[in-house]
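User: Reviewer 2 asked us to show a designed sequence for the structure in our supplementary figure. I'm pasting the structure tokens here. Could you produce the per-position amino acids so we can include them in the response letter?
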């Protein structure tokens, strides 16, 4: 039997790949244009790193916890938002212009993925490239001698990464509402296996097949131990859907 929930695969996602470019570009931007002793440098580099690392960690956590995956993606989104403000502050404090959303320079950065796809006959996109090849497409802006060009290009990329993360988070929330989390999916898979065993007389019943169903909602029960009250220390069957369902069966 394979995994109930897929995990990993983050290296092939546009959000992780864009966050990688942002992290590398931020590191080199700070190295070239800011005082290494400045606390801002550490904060910017750590925010860029957090955006990238939490996407990866959230993807790995997907196997066992929808809530953890969502929490880590939201941490990544918050870190990149913090970094966005840092680059906007850099421009404002130095009285450098920030590109508007419809400025030709900003549109040129945003349209790199579409232009790459148009120029390729094999219909491949940026996610198929190596990190080095992907960086080369943005190098005219991210390696520019003018710090304002670099900062503005990074603002464009951070906005793109945030848009991708917003879509990713919304899709995960929708999937969680419709399909439940890991524990619910695990319980459902167990019910399917129990039904299969019942149909196959060659398979002896497993001890867990004697688990009762909740009299209120029909979900499998979980054996628990009362922690307080007159029944403290006594075991009972509680609904696996608790706290949404408080069904109880005496053991």
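Assistant: Here is a per-position design you can include in the supplement:
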């Amino acid at each position: 039997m394979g995994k109930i929930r897929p995990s990993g695969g983050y290296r092939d996602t546009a959000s992780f790949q864009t966050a990688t470019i942002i992290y590398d570009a931020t590191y080199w931007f700070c190295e070239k244009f800011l005082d290494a002793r400045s606390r801002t440098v550490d904060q910017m580099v750590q925010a860029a790193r957090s955006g990238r690392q939490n996407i990866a960690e959230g993807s790995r956590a997907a196997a066992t916890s929808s809530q953890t995956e969502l929490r880590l993606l939201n941490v990544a989104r918050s870190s990149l938002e913090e970094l966005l403000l840092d680059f906007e502050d850099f421009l404002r404090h130095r009285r450098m212009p920030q590109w508007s959303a419809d400025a030709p320079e900003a549109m040129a950065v945003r349209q790199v993925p579409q232009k790459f796809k148009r120029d390729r006959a094999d219909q491949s996109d940026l996610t198929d490239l190596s990190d080095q090849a992907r960086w080369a497409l943005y190098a005219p802006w991210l390696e520019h001698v003018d710090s304002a060009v670099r900062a503005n290009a990074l603002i464009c990329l951070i906005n793109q990464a945030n848009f991708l993360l917003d879509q990713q988070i919304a899709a995960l929330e929708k999937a969680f509402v419709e399909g439940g989390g890991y524990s619910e999916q695990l319980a459902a898979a167990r019910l399917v296996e129990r039904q299969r065993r019942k149909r196959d007389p060659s398979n002896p019943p497993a001890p867990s097949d004697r688990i009762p169903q909740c009299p209120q909602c029909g979900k499998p029960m979980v054996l628990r131990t009362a922690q307080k009250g007159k029944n403290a220390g006594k075991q009972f069957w509680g609904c696996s859907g608790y706290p949404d369902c408080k069904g109880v069966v005496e053991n």
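For the response letter, you might also mention the following. The first helix runs from residue 14 to 33. The first strand starts at residue 221 and ends at 225.
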